[in-house]
Amino acid sequence: MATGSRFDGALRGGVLPTGAHDTIADVPGVTVGHCTLADGPVQTGVTVVKPHPGDVYRSKVPAGAAVINGFGKSVGLVQVDELGTLETPIALTNTFGVGAVAQAQIRAAIAANPAIGRDWPTVNPLVFECNDGYLNDIQAFAVTAAHYDEACRAASRDVARGAVGAGRGMSCFDLKGGIGSASRVAVAAGHMYTVGALVLANFGRLPMLTLDGVPVGRIAAARAARAAAAVAAPPPEQGSIIMVLATDAPLDARQLSRLARRAAAGLARTGSVYGHGSGDIALAFSTAGTIAHDARYVSLPALLADSMLDPLFAAAADSVERAIVDALLQAVTVTGRDGHVRQSLRDAVPDLDPLLNAHRPNYS
Protein backbone atom coordinates (compact mmCIF):
# COMPACT_ATOMS: atom_id res chain seq x y z
CA MET A 1 0.00 0.00 0.00
CA ALA A 2 1.36 3.40 -0.97
CA THR A 3 1.90 5.95 1.74
CA GLY A 4 0.34 9.38 1.83
CA SER A 5 1.89 12.45 0.29
CA ARG A 6 3.03 15.71 1.87
CA PHE A 7 1.14 17.44 -0.96
CA ASP A 8 -2.28 16.20 0.18
CA GLY A 9 -3.20 19.37 2.05
CA ALA A 10 -2.27 21.61 -0.88
CA LEU A 11 -4.53 19.75 -3.30
CA ARG A 12 -7.88 19.25 -1.59
CA GLY A 13 -10.09 19.81 -4.62
CA GLY A 14 -13.18 21.98 -4.21
CA VAL A 15 -14.42 23.67 -1.04
CA LEU A 16 -16.72 21.09 0.59
CA PRO A 17 -15.54 19.30 3.76
CA THR A 18 -14.17 15.78 3.46
CA GLY A 19 -15.45 12.66 5.13
CA ALA A 20 -13.60 11.13 8.08
CA HIS A 21 -11.10 9.23 5.92
CA ASP A 22 -11.55 11.05 2.59
CA THR A 23 -12.38 7.81 0.75
CA ILE A 24 -15.44 6.16 -0.75
CA ALA A 25 -15.68 4.02 2.40
CA ASP A 26 -16.87 7.09 4.31
CA VAL A 27 -20.27 6.17 2.87
CA PRO A 28 -21.67 3.72 5.45
CA GLY A 29 -21.50 0.07 4.40
CA VAL A 30 -19.16 0.56 1.43
CA THR A 31 -15.93 -1.47 1.35
CA VAL A 32 -13.12 -1.88 -1.18
CA GLY A 33 -10.80 -4.82 -1.83
CA HIS A 34 -7.81 -5.38 -4.11
CA CYS A 35 -5.82 -8.23 -5.56
CA THR A 36 -2.51 -6.96 -6.97
CA LEU A 37 -0.32 -8.85 -9.47
CA ALA A 38 3.20 -7.41 -9.64
CA ASP A 39 5.67 -9.83 -11.20
CA GLY A 40 8.00 -8.52 -13.92
CA PRO A 41 5.97 -8.01 -17.09
CA VAL A 42 2.70 -8.77 -15.27
CA GLN A 43 1.54 -5.56 -13.59
CA THR A 44 -2.22 -5.72 -13.16
CA GLY A 45 -4.97 -6.80 -10.78
CA VAL A 46 -8.58 -6.62 -9.67
CA THR A 47 -10.41 -4.08 -7.50
CA VAL A 48 -13.86 -4.65 -6.03
CA VAL A 49 -16.31 -2.11 -4.56
CA LYS A 50 -19.04 -3.62 -2.36
CA PRO A 51 -22.08 -1.41 -1.71
CA HIS A 52 -22.97 -3.24 1.52
CA PRO A 53 -21.81 -6.33 3.44
CA GLY A 54 -24.75 -8.52 2.40
CA ASP A 55 -25.68 -10.46 -0.74
CA VAL A 56 -26.07 -7.81 -3.46
CA TYR A 57 -28.17 -10.16 -5.63
CA ARG A 58 -30.70 -10.66 -2.84
CA SER A 59 -30.53 -7.05 -1.62
CA LYS A 60 -30.03 -4.82 -4.63
CA VAL A 61 -29.18 -1.14 -4.46
CA PRO A 62 -30.32 1.65 -6.80
CA ALA A 63 -27.72 2.67 -9.37
CA GLY A 64 -27.31 4.79 -12.47
CA ALA A 65 -24.53 5.20 -15.01
CA ALA A 66 -23.23 7.88 -17.35
CA VAL A 67 -21.14 7.12 -20.43
CA ILE A 68 -19.14 10.28 -21.05
CA ASN A 69 -17.09 8.72 -23.87
CA GLY A 70 -17.92 5.14 -24.76
CA PHE A 71 -14.56 3.75 -25.86
CA GLY A 72 -14.79 0.84 -23.39
CA LYS A 73 -15.45 -2.87 -23.05
CA SER A 74 -17.49 -3.08 -19.88
CA VAL A 75 -19.99 -5.80 -18.97
CA GLY A 76 -23.38 -5.18 -17.37
CA LEU A 77 -24.09 -1.53 -18.20
CA VAL A 78 -27.11 -2.25 -20.41
CA GLN A 79 -29.09 -3.88 -17.61
CA VAL A 80 -28.06 -1.23 -15.09
CA ASP A 81 -29.38 1.38 -17.50
CA GLU A 82 -32.65 -0.55 -17.95
CA LEU A 83 -33.39 -1.71 -14.39
CA GLY A 84 -31.44 0.79 -12.29
CA THR A 85 -29.99 -1.65 -9.75
CA LEU A 86 -26.76 -3.45 -8.88
CA GLU A 87 -26.80 -7.25 -8.52
CA THR A 88 -23.11 -7.87 -7.82
CA PRO A 89 -20.20 -5.94 -6.38
CA ILE A 90 -18.57 -3.53 -8.85
CA ALA A 91 -15.38 -4.99 -10.31
CA LEU A 92 -12.48 -3.19 -12.01
CA THR A 93 -9.69 -4.86 -13.99
CA ASN A 94 -7.73 -4.69 -17.25
CA THR A 95 -9.41 -4.94 -20.65
CA PHE A 96 -8.55 -8.59 -21.30
CA GLY A 97 -9.53 -9.60 -17.76
CA VAL A 98 -13.19 -8.62 -18.11
CA GLY A 99 -14.39 -12.08 -19.19
CA ALA A 100 -12.66 -13.93 -16.36
CA VAL A 101 -13.91 -11.50 -13.74
CA ALA A 102 -17.49 -11.53 -15.07
CA GLN A 103 -17.52 -15.31 -14.93
CA ALA A 104 -16.16 -15.18 -11.38
CA GLN A 105 -18.99 -12.82 -10.40
CA ILE A 106 -21.56 -15.19 -11.89
CA ARG A 107 -20.06 -18.21 -10.12
CA ALA A 108 -19.96 -16.36 -6.80
CA ALA A 109 -23.62 -15.36 -7.14
CA ILE A 110 -24.64 -18.93 -8.00
CA ALA A 111 -22.67 -20.32 -5.06
CA ALA A 112 -24.65 -18.04 -2.74
CA ASN A 113 -27.96 -18.55 -4.61
CA PRO A 114 -28.11 -21.93 -6.42
CA ALA A 115 -31.49 -21.08 -7.99
CA ILE A 116 -29.92 -18.41 -10.22
CA GLY A 117 -30.37 -19.29 -13.88
CA ARG A 118 -32.80 -22.11 -13.08
CA ASP A 119 -35.74 -21.18 -10.92
CA TRP A 120 -34.60 -17.57 -10.65
CA PRO A 121 -33.45 -15.08 -13.29
CA THR A 122 -29.79 -14.93 -14.24
CA VAL A 123 -27.41 -12.47 -12.59
CA ASN A 124 -25.99 -9.31 -14.13
CA PRO A 125 -22.20 -9.15 -13.63
CA LEU A 126 -20.76 -5.65 -13.59
CA VAL A 127 -17.15 -5.26 -14.69
CA PHE A 128 -15.35 -2.11 -15.83
CA GLU A 129 -11.95 -2.00 -17.51
CA CYS A 130 -9.03 0.15 -18.56
CA ASN A 131 -6.15 -0.86 -20.83
CA ASP A 132 -2.95 -1.27 -18.80
CA GLY A 133 -1.00 -2.69 -21.74
CA TYR A 134 1.89 -0.20 -21.57
CA LEU A 135 3.14 -1.55 -18.24
CA ASN A 136 1.35 -4.90 -18.15
CA ASP A 137 1.72 -7.83 -20.56
CA ILE A 138 -2.00 -7.82 -21.22
CA GLN A 139 -1.66 -10.75 -23.63
CA ALA A 140 -0.63 -12.97 -20.73
CA PHE A 141 -4.29 -13.05 -19.56
CA ALA A 142 -2.95 -13.10 -16.01
CA VAL A 143 -6.23 -12.19 -14.28
CA THR A 144 -8.28 -15.20 -13.21
CA ALA A 145 -11.43 -15.88 -11.22
CA ALA A 146 -9.30 -16.55 -8.15
CA HIS A 147 -8.07 -12.96 -8.21
CA TYR A 148 -11.63 -11.63 -8.12
CA ASP A 149 -12.39 -13.91 -5.17
CA GLU A 150 -9.27 -12.67 -3.38
CA ALA A 151 -10.24 -9.04 -3.91
CA CYS A 152 -13.70 -9.76 -2.48
CA ARG A 153 -12.23 -11.41 0.60
CA ALA A 154 -9.91 -8.42 1.11
CA ALA A 155 -12.74 -5.85 1.04
CA SER A 156 -12.61 -3.45 3.98
CA ARG A 157 -13.13 0.18 4.92
CA ASP A 158 -9.35 0.71 4.83
CA VAL A 159 -9.02 1.71 1.18
CA ALA A 160 -5.55 1.20 -0.32
CA ARG A 161 -4.83 3.50 -3.25
CA GLY A 162 -2.22 4.06 -5.90
CA ALA A 163 -0.54 1.22 -7.81
CA VAL A 164 -2.75 -1.47 -6.28
CA GLY A 165 -5.41 -3.85 -7.55
CA ALA A 166 -6.74 -2.92 -10.97
CA GLY A 167 -4.62 0.22 -10.77
CA ARG A 168 -1.28 -1.58 -10.66
CA GLY A 169 -0.46 -1.12 -14.36
CA MET A 170 -2.43 2.01 -15.15
CA SER A 171 -1.00 5.29 -16.48
CA CYS A 172 -2.35 8.81 -15.99
CA PHE A 173 -1.07 11.91 -17.81
CA ASP A 174 1.95 9.83 -18.92
CA LEU A 175 2.73 9.29 -15.23
CA LYS A 176 1.82 6.44 -12.92
CA GLY A 177 -1.92 6.32 -12.36
CA GLY A 178 -4.14 3.80 -10.64
CA ILE A 179 -6.68 3.79 -7.83
CA GLY A 180 -7.68 7.02 -6.13
CA SER A 181 -10.46 7.82 -3.69
CA ALA A 182 -12.03 10.77 -1.90
CA SER A 183 -15.23 11.87 -0.20
CA ARG A 184 -17.15 15.06 0.37
CA VAL A 185 -19.94 15.96 2.80
CA ALA A 186 -22.83 18.06 1.56
CA VAL A 187 -26.02 19.44 3.10
CA ALA A 188 -29.17 18.87 1.07
CA ALA A 189 -32.71 19.56 2.27
CA GLY A 190 -31.34 20.21 5.76
CA HIS A 191 -29.56 16.85 6.08
CA MET A 192 -25.88 15.93 5.81
CA TYR A 193 -24.99 13.35 3.17
CA THR A 194 -21.69 11.87 2.02
CA VAL A 195 -20.63 11.39 -1.59
CA GLY A 196 -17.58 9.18 -2.07
CA ALA A 197 -15.61 8.51 -5.24
CA LEU A 198 -13.22 5.80 -6.32
CA VAL A 199 -11.48 6.09 -9.68
CA LEU A 200 -9.41 3.84 -11.89
CA ALA A 201 -7.30 6.55 -13.54
CA ASN A 202 -5.68 5.63 -16.85
CA PHE A 203 -6.09 8.67 -19.10
CA GLY A 204 -4.55 11.90 -20.32
CA ARG A 205 -1.27 13.22 -21.72
CA LEU A 206 1.28 15.07 -19.60
CA PRO A 207 0.77 18.57 -21.10
CA MET A 208 -2.93 18.35 -20.15
CA LEU A 209 -2.40 17.82 -16.41
CA THR A 210 -3.90 20.64 -14.34
CA LEU A 211 -3.82 20.74 -10.53
CA ASP A 212 -5.71 23.45 -8.67
CA GLY A 213 -5.75 25.47 -11.88
CA VAL A 214 -1.97 25.22 -12.28
CA PRO A 215 -0.72 23.75 -15.62
CA VAL A 216 1.62 21.32 -13.87
CA GLY A 217 1.79 19.06 -16.91
CA ARG A 218 3.00 21.78 -19.24
CA ILE A 219 5.58 22.89 -16.72
CA ALA A 220 6.81 19.32 -16.23
CA ALA A 221 6.89 18.67 -19.99
CA ALA A 222 8.83 21.87 -20.59
CA ARG A 223 11.55 20.56 -18.30
CA ALA A 224 12.04 17.43 -20.38
CA ALA A 225 14.26 17.22 -23.45
CA ARG A 226 11.24 16.30 -25.58
CA ALA A 227 9.18 19.24 -24.33
CA ALA A 228 8.80 21.19 -27.57
CA ALA A 229 7.44 18.25 -29.55
CA ALA A 230 5.30 17.01 -26.68
CA VAL A 231 3.64 20.37 -26.12
CA ALA A 232 3.28 21.24 -29.81
CA ALA A 233 1.78 17.95 -30.93
CA PRO A 234 0.95 15.56 -28.10
CA PRO A 235 -0.11 12.07 -29.21
CA PRO A 236 -3.85 11.35 -29.06
CA GLU A 237 -5.35 10.35 -25.73
CA GLN A 238 -6.00 6.60 -25.68
CA GLY A 239 -6.59 5.89 -22.02
CA SER A 240 -9.70 5.56 -19.89
CA ILE A 241 -11.11 6.33 -16.49
CA ILE A 242 -13.77 4.55 -14.47
CA MET A 243 -15.42 6.70 -11.79
CA VAL A 244 -17.52 5.02 -9.09
CA LEU A 245 -19.66 7.27 -6.88
CA ALA A 246 -21.39 6.14 -3.69
CA THR A 247 -23.76 8.14 -1.53
CA ASP A 248 -26.02 7.64 1.46
CA ALA A 249 -28.47 10.21 0.07
CA PRO A 250 -31.87 8.73 -0.85
CA LEU A 251 -31.84 8.86 -4.65
CA ASP A 252 -33.48 6.70 -7.31
CA ALA A 253 -31.80 5.34 -10.43
CA ARG A 254 -32.68 8.36 -12.59
CA GLN A 255 -31.24 10.76 -10.04
CA LEU A 256 -28.15 8.60 -9.65
CA SER A 257 -27.58 8.78 -13.40
CA ARG A 258 -27.69 12.56 -13.05
CA LEU A 259 -25.19 12.37 -10.19
CA ALA A 260 -22.91 10.14 -12.28
CA ARG A 261 -22.88 12.70 -15.10
CA ARG A 262 -21.40 15.29 -12.72
CA ALA A 263 -18.28 13.13 -12.44
CA ALA A 264 -17.35 14.63 -15.80
CA ALA A 265 -17.00 18.05 -14.16
CA GLY A 266 -14.37 16.76 -11.75
CA LEU A 267 -12.60 14.91 -14.56
CA ALA A 268 -12.45 18.05 -16.71
CA ARG A 269 -10.86 20.08 -13.90
CA THR A 270 -7.77 17.86 -14.08
CA GLY A 271 -7.31 18.58 -17.80
CA SER A 272 -9.15 15.79 -19.60
CA VAL A 273 -11.02 16.51 -22.82
CA TYR A 274 -12.53 13.00 -23.01
CA GLY A 275 -10.40 12.10 -26.03
CA HIS A 276 -11.59 9.93 -28.90
CA GLY A 277 -9.83 6.83 -27.57
CA SER A 278 -10.67 7.39 -23.91
CA GLY A 279 -13.37 5.30 -22.24
CA ASP A 280 -14.79 7.65 -19.60
CA ILE A 281 -17.56 5.97 -17.62
CA ALA A 282 -19.18 6.85 -14.29
CA LEU A 283 -21.52 4.82 -12.11
CA ALA A 284 -23.31 6.04 -8.99
CA PHE A 285 -25.20 4.04 -6.38
CA SER A 286 -27.07 4.82 -3.17
CA THR A 287 -26.89 2.91 0.11
CA ALA A 288 -29.97 4.61 1.56
CA GLY A 289 -32.12 1.54 0.94
CA THR A 290 -32.12 -1.90 -0.65
CA ILE A 291 -34.54 -3.72 -2.92
CA ALA A 292 -35.27 -7.36 -2.13
CA HIS A 293 -34.77 -9.73 -5.05
CA ASP A 294 -38.22 -11.30 -4.58
CA ALA A 295 -40.06 -8.10 -3.70
CA ARG A 296 -43.58 -7.58 -5.05
CA TYR A 297 -43.67 -3.99 -3.93
CA VAL A 298 -40.73 -1.67 -3.38
CA SER A 299 -40.58 0.77 -0.50
CA LEU A 300 -37.61 3.13 -0.52
CA PRO A 301 -36.91 6.08 1.79
CA ALA A 302 -38.47 9.38 0.76
CA LEU A 303 -36.35 10.64 -2.13
CA LEU A 304 -34.70 14.02 -2.31
CA ALA A 305 -36.44 16.36 -4.72
CA ASP A 306 -34.46 17.13 -7.85
CA SER A 307 -34.28 20.78 -6.82
CA MET A 308 -32.27 19.69 -3.75
CA LEU A 309 -29.52 17.90 -5.68
CA ASP A 310 -27.09 20.75 -6.42
CA PRO A 311 -24.99 20.19 -3.25
CA LEU A 312 -24.62 16.52 -4.17
CA PHE A 313 -23.63 17.45 -7.72
CA ALA A 314 -20.91 19.70 -6.29
CA ALA A 315 -19.77 16.89 -3.99
CA ALA A 316 -19.57 14.48 -6.94
CA ALA A 317 -17.40 16.86 -8.97
CA ASP A 318 -15.14 17.67 -6.01
CA SER A 319 -14.69 14.06 -4.93
CA VAL A 320 -13.88 12.84 -8.45
CA GLU A 321 -11.34 15.63 -8.98
CA ARG A 322 -9.71 14.84 -5.65
CA ALA A 323 -9.78 11.07 -6.29
CA ILE A 324 -7.85 11.56 -9.54
CA VAL A 325 -5.27 13.69 -7.74
CA ASP A 326 -5.16 11.03 -5.01
CA ALA A 327 -4.37 8.33 -7.57
CA LEU A 328 -1.41 10.39 -8.80
CA LEU A 329 -0.16 11.24 -5.31
CA GLN A 330 -0.47 7.72 -3.92
CA ALA A 331 1.15 5.99 -6.89
CA VAL A 332 4.74 4.75 -6.90
CA THR A 333 7.04 4.47 -9.91
CA VAL A 334 6.52 1.11 -11.64
CA THR A 335 8.65 -0.77 -14.19
CA GLY A 336 6.78 -3.36 -16.24
CA ARG A 337 6.63 -5.02 -19.65
CA ASP A 338 9.70 -4.63 -21.89
CA GLY A 339 11.28 -2.30 -19.35
CA HIS A 340 8.54 0.31 -19.71
CA VAL A 341 8.51 2.76 -16.80
CA ARG A 342 5.88 5.12 -15.47
CA GLN A 343 7.17 7.64 -12.96
CA SER A 344 5.03 8.68 -10.04
CA LEU A 345 4.03 12.34 -9.89
CA ARG A 346 6.18 12.75 -6.79
CA ASP A 347 9.24 11.41 -8.60
CA ALA A 348 8.58 13.35 -11.81
CA VAL A 349 7.92 16.66 -10.05
CA PRO A 350 9.77 16.53 -6.72
CA ASP A 351 9.20 20.26 -6.16
CA LEU A 352 5.44 20.04 -6.68
CA ASP A 353 4.49 21.93 -3.52
CA PRO A 354 6.59 25.07 -4.16
CA LEU A 355 5.65 24.90 -7.84
CA LEU A 356 1.96 25.01 -6.97
CA ASN A 357 2.47 27.83 -4.49
CA ALA A 358 4.35 29.85 -7.10
CA HIS A 359 1.76 29.45 -9.86
CA ARG A 360 -1.57 29.15 -8.04
CA PRO A 361 -3.81 32.18 -8.73
CA ASN A 362 -4.07 34.69 -5.89
CA TYR A 363 -7.65 35.90 -5.47
CA SER A 364 -7.05 38.07 -2.40
Automatic annotation (TrEMBL):
Database matches in CDD domains: DmpA (cd02253)
Residue ranges crossing the lipid bilayer per the database entry: none
Pfam families xref list: Peptidase_S58
Domain of life: Bacteria
InterPro entries: ArgJ-like_dom_sf, Peptidase_S58_DmpA
Family indicated by similarity: Belongs to the peptidase S58 family.
Protein name: P1 family peptidase
Species annotation: Burkholderia theae
